[in-house]
Amino acid sequence: MKRTERRHLKENELQTFAREARGRFEERKRETTGIAALLVVVGLLVGGYFVWRDRVETRAHALLAEALVVQAARIGTPAAPGTAGAGSLSFMTERERAQTALTKLKIAADAYPSSDAGIYARYQLAATYVELGNPASAAGEYQQVSERAGDKIYGQMARLGLAEARAIEGKYDEAITLFKELSQRKDGPLPVDGILMQLGRVYIDAGKRADAQQTFNRLVEEYPESPFIGDARKEIENLKKT
After folding, report:
1. Own/partner pairs for 13-19, CB < 8 Å, 24+ apart?
2. Is the dihedral of CA 162, 58, 115, 100 positive or negative?
3. Which pLDDT does position 65 carry in this prediction?
4. Furthest-apart CA pair in the chain: how many Å?
5. Measured between alpha carbons, how far apart are the two ends of the chain, in Å?
6. How many CA atoms does the CB half-sphere of 186 hold within 13 Å?
7. What is the mean pLDDT of each run of 10 residues along the chain (242 residues)?
8. Model pTM score
9. What is the pLDDT of residue 233?
10. In 10 A of CB 81, how many CB atoms?
């Protein structure tokens, strides 16, 4: 092969290599630009989500605050002008206050059901239903809190509230099942000795005296320093007498 032909061939190879290199560079450039644009979009979405969440929590807390103000309102005749408490919110009866709080708690709970403030509002809503003598409605609200809060503190407290509501309704088997489940969770935030005390009393209400005595015995044996120990021993003595 002549020198000139070899030179042309080499030049062609270099040109081909250069074209391929430019092509790869342009392709990588497009890919890099696309990734960068995607990251920008993701960043905007994440930032927007946090801004939205903060706004939701702020609005939810504002609604919850209105309800809590009602819950803390004074019972009695309105304070006279010029005296301490003048102009502050007050109600003539506890029932009137509870009914007003119920309305505001429901607004907060329904408006932002998945927010922390909304979950707490629903928990308070359930407790207020119990206060007003409506355990069936309370049970429904406690169930929603349990489903939304999961295994967090308010989820477990809601299951305890649900057990209490079922016991008030006279649905003892369901209440016993819930109390028993909670009493097995020694590593949880709820006091097991208190749960055992409630479980024993529900057993008595259900006519299951042997189960009640066994439950109180467990409380005495496993929690000798419990503040419920005196009540548990009294229940045991009463069960032995009858």
Report:
1. none
2. positive
3. 87
4. 122
5. 119
6. 3
7. 48 54 56 52 46 63 86 83 72 93 92 89 95 96 94 92 96 96 87 96 96 96 95 94 77
8. 0.73
9. 96
10. 7
In 3D space, the residue among 87, 85, 91 whose CA is nearest the CA of residue 73 turns out to be: 91
**Cα dist from 77 to 4, 74, 80, 84, 110, whole Å:** 113, 9, 9, 13, 32
Assign 75 to helix, strand or coil.
strand
Neighbouring residues of 117: CB distance < 8 A, sequence distance ≥ 6: 57, 60, 61, 63, 64, 108
Specify the DSSP class assigned to residue 74. E
What is d(CA 46, CA 52) in angstroms, rounded to the nearest whole number?
A: 10
Strands (E), 92-219: none
CA distance 180 to 196: 8
Q: Look up residue 76 and give its amino acid.
A: G
Token pair, residue 48, equals: 């927007």
Two tokens, residue 148: 């939304």
pLDDT of residue 87: 67
Is the distance from CB of 167 to CB of 202 less than 8 angstroms?
A: yes
Q: How many CB atoms lie within 10 A of CB 148?
A: 18
| Residue 45, both tokens | 């979405």
How far apart, in whole angstroms, are the C-alpha atoms of residue 203 and residue 242?
15
The count of residues in the chain is 242
Nearest to 116 by CA among 61, 159, 50: 61
CA 202 to chain centre: 26
Can you give the pLDDT at residue 173? 96
